[in-house]
Amino acid sequence: xxxxxxxxxxxxxxxxxxxxxxxxxxxxxxxxxxxxxxxxxxxxxxxxxxxxxxxxxxxxxxxxxxxxxxxxxxxxxxxxxxxxxxxxxxxxxxxxxxxxxxxxxxxxxxxxxxxxxxxxxxxxxxxxxxxxxxxxxxxxxxxxxxxxxxxxxxxxxxxxxxxxxxxxxxxxxxxxxxxxxxxxxxxxxxxxxxxxxxxxxxxxxxxxxxxxxxxxxxxxxxxxxxxxxxxxxxxxxxxxxxxxxxxxxxxxxxxxxxxxxxxxxxxxxxxxxxxxxxxxxxxxxxxxxxxxxxxxxxxxxxxxxxxxxxxxxxxxxxxxxxxxxxxxxxxxxxxxxxxxxxxxxxxxxxxxxxxxxxxxxxxxxxxxxxxxxxxxxxxxxx
Length: 382
Known about the structure:
By secondary structure, this protein is α+β, with helices and mostly antiparallel strands. It has a domain at 180-380: Chloramphenicol Acetyltransferase (2-Layer Sandwich). The chain is 29% helix and 25% strand. The protein contains 8 helices and 17 strands. The chain has a 6-stranded mixed beta sheet with strand order 8-17-16-15-11-14, covered by helices on one side. A 4-stranded antiparallel beta sheet has the order 4-3-1-6, covered by helices on one side. The longest helix is centred in the middle third of the chain and has 20 residues, at 124-143.
């Protein structure tokens, strides 16, 4: 069992991708490990042959424990070996760990599913669609049977929560119960920001800038102005952080994660955009480490792309605040002459830990974020 993070002491061996006798190439996935925060594919370091599996699927295994035995570099792999049942990239079904788990629970053959991901990779959503189709066919068959009228058809579906889902549920419940939340809400005029973003993206830079990138940059600038916000509660101590690290909420097929953007104050707007996109990509591919998910005092969660009018999020355990970002909406505001002027506004909601922050400091910080977004040219300077 590999050590996948500094704090990892054990992991759940979620599934085997090989069986005894299989020939494997370097880079083939041998098994999937789940910790409290992530699921990780463990790959073969070189070519070899699997001799035996020492640990069953679903076992919680201490770091360093032998989970399988194998012989390295037994023989070169070829198509003849593959045809005899060996494990190779040419024959194995490409699917995410969550998709494989859902398929096992629903008793669905992954070979019968066409994946919607890159290179035909089967995602959890593909399995859910297949399961729903299977349920419809089964319901239609049951409805046509003579006994169908004897009992009503139940449409309720149940499945065990995955380890990651259970962990998120536990951590969020603990956070809401143990962290005394309070909330500050403000609107930001982003009329100029949207025009600036359009101009910058039309210039065809290295990366397209999203509203989230601007919000993260504004939070960074506001933290530099109000460093007392950059602190957390830890074992009855208030800890002020030296670095400005920002969490970024990302929805993945395994659930919601919040990887942390390190030393964001050392990056310009383009650097923040590139770093955010790299984090999002690794999060959605299941390539985050435990270190990626630790640290920082504040996160940003943007649901504006889904049309939400407002988001009041729950603080991530270990942090002291989270900024909820909603959709941009057009509103009429009086201009300097008192005439109605069409503006574009963004709703911001800051959830705060009252053990660390108070209403005045939180309001000043949130107002600073709103002011920076309203004057976006300042974000082009470090």
